[in-house]
Design goal:
Layout (H helix, E strand, L loop, with lengths): L2 E9 L10 E7 L2 E6 L10 E13 L1 E6 L1 H8 L2 E2 L6 H14 L2 E7 L12 H7 L4 E6 L4 E4 L1 H8 L11 E3 L3 H11 L2 H17 L2 E8 L6 H12 L3 E6 L5 H6 L3 E7 L29 H14 L2 E6 L2 H18 L7 E4 L5 H10 L2 E4 L1 H7 L5 H6 L1 H5 L4 H6 L4 E3 L10 H9 L10 H9 L1 H5 L17 E4 L16 E6 L2 E5 L7
Parallel strand pairs: 1-4, 5-11, 6-7, 7-8, 11-12, 13-14, 14-15, 15-16, 16-17
Antiparallel strand pairs: 1-2, 2-3, 4-18, 8-9, 9-10, 18-19, 19-20
Helix pairs in contact: 1-6, 9-10, 10-11, 12-16, 16-17
The protein binds zinc ion (2 copies).
One zinc ion binds next to strand 15.
């Protein structure tokens, strides 16, 4: 059996990532046999030595909240991210209609265009009247459809309401799930392969994949098969109110972005007080406390962890109180339940979350993209409430376990960007230190999935999944952290990505 001998690097572990903990490592069968300082080169015929060239080495990153098949889907079709005018948008869609019967376009944002508007139904029909065209907004909460696509959508929602082809709100979610059903397995597979490549290039060795819906277990199945046959490790959560499929698969949890409420962007996150920029609206509550308690009961009966999506303060109050109720009723669980996002929690909700021992999966890049005095949160909520969003330090100081996720495709799979966001929080009082920030993307996600006994540290008996960084992050100023690069990624001791790969494409 071949042994791998790694040398010449600065290996880091908790409790203090800033200190060099080891500089040599021996790996066999994907598992770490030994780490130490200046370990002797092992004797025996089958040893391969690998010089890590003075890199700073951490256990691999994880992303605890990814919509994997959906991310893959947005990587197929036309990417409108760089378009600056409508004519470019039309050209990109036109190209897509030439190679596919269903022309899908992603990452549309009207504010990026000179014209600052959406395409109209007539404009899309002019590109093609007989091929299906679907132009998704970047937030994936709405899309613009041509006549052919509207006709298709009418099969599911007769009399579907749209504004000149634009579909949003309550009508959007069901047809977006139906769209996913129309996508062939092979196209989804292609998308997942591209997403895996992206993960590895960002040092991500494991993701928590939140897949499917109550109506469909297909994407959860496809993702699970993908992880079995590929390098990237995945923990799959089936986004269903029914735990049976997850139970049958032998998974530890179910749920994911099971919507208790919506999002701030579309003004559907449930608030105690109305939206600042839409005083008639308090958002939507999709599940009440009886429904959340019912989910918790099912989770306990199936002996599974539950995860739900909760963003606004009204939703967070309900979820945290329900979780505290379940903790009282059923006692401590080997794997506590998860709350996804928890963006605007009241003091009461934070206290209840702590009491319930809930695990909170946060998206630090949300603050980077939408926080701050001029950001989207301030527009939607007013400055006072916006300043209370994403209270990372408050929660960490209270001992609430946090793990970092991207909610990809909403923000990119990029833990370094997440760490940058944590140290540069728009609210200076909610910034956390680099050591904790790193742990949120290295050790904590494995705890959330109950895999921390073999993953997330570089120690004897742990999996040899690790990354090399271009610089020591502790020597880089917080404002410049996003310039750090992952130069090599290893899974089971094998190099699965290196920045020399860049030269190939
Ligand atoms: Zn969500
Ligand atoms: Zn999500």
């Amino acid at each position: 059996m071949e042994q791998l001998f790694f040398f010449n690097f600065s290996g880091r572990n908790l409790p203090d990532y800033s200190k060099k903990d080891f500089d040599t490592m021996l790996v066999m069968n994907g598992t770490i046999l030994k780490t130490g300082f200046q370990l002797p080169f092992p004797s025996g015929p089958n040893v391969k030595a690998i010089n890590l060239q003075n890199a700073t080495v951490f256990a691999g990153f994880s992303d605890a909240h990814v919509h994997f098949t959906q991310t893959g889907l947005t990587r197929s079709g036309a990417n409108l991210d760089k378009a600056t005018r409508l004519s470019e948008v039309f050209d990109l869609i036109n190209e897509e209609t030439k190679t596919s019967d269903m022309a899908l376009a992603f990452n549309f944002q009207e504010q990026s265009l000179e014209e600052n508007r959406r395409p109209t139904l007539a404009e899309l029909d002019k590109i093609s009247a007989d091929k299906f065209i679907w132009v998704a907004r970047k937030d994936l909460h709405s899309a613009i459809l041509n006549s052919k696509a509207l006709e298709w959508a009418n099969n599911f929602i007769p009399g579907l309401k749209h504004q000149n082809g634009f579909v949003s709100g309550e009508n959007y979610n069901p047809i977006s799930y139906k769209l996913l059903n129309e996508i062939s397995d092979s196209l989804l597979l292609k998308g997942m392969q591209a997403t895996e490549e992206e993960c590895l290039s960002k040092g991500v060795v494991c993701i928590h994949a939140l897949e499917g819906s109550t109506d469909s277990d297909r994407e959860a199945k496809l993702a699970a098969d993908f992880f079995k046959n590929n390098k990237l490790e995945g923990v799959v959560y089936h986004q269903s109110v029914d735990p049976n499929f997850a139970k049958k698969q032998g998974w530890a949890g179910f749920g994911g972005c099971l919507l208790v409420d919506g999002s701030f962007g579309t003004r559907t996150a449930a608030l105690n007080e109305p939206y600042a920029d839409s005083p008639e609206s308090n958002g939507n509550l999709y599940l009440d406390s009886a429904a959340i308690q019912e989910l918790l009961q099912r989770a306990r009966t199936a002996d599974l962890q539950l995860a739900v999506h909760s963003i606004g303060d009204r939703a967070n109050d309900l979820v945290a109180a329900s979780y505290a109720w379940a903790r009282q009723k059923y006692g401590a669980q080997p794997l506590s339940d998860r709350i996804e996002h928890f963006i605007l929690p009241s003091t009461r909700a934070i206290r209840a979350a702590r009491e319930s021992e809930a695990l909170v999966c946060i998206q630090p890049v949300f603050d980077l993209f939408w926080g701050g005095k001029e950001g989207l949160y301030s527009q939607r909520l007013g400055k006072e409430r916006a300043a209370r969003c994403n209270p990372f330090k408050t929660m960490l100081d209270l001992g609430i376990p946090l793990a970092g996720g991207s909610d990809s495709p909403v923000t990119p799979i990029d833990p370094i960007l997440g760490i940058h966001a944590l140290l540069n929080h728009s609210n200076t009082e909610e910034r956390i230190d680099l050591n904790s920030a790193l742990s949120l993307f290295i050790t904590e996600p494995h705890k959330f999935a109950g895999k921390n006994k073999t993953r997330g540290h570089l120690k004897t008996g742990y999996k040899a999944d690790f990354i090399c960084l271009s610089e020591d992050p502790f020597m880089v100023s917080p404002a410049r952290l996003d310039s750090l690069e992952v130069t090599r990624t290893f899974i089971n001791g094998n190099e699965v990505w290196g920045c020399h790969n860049l030269n190939r494409s």
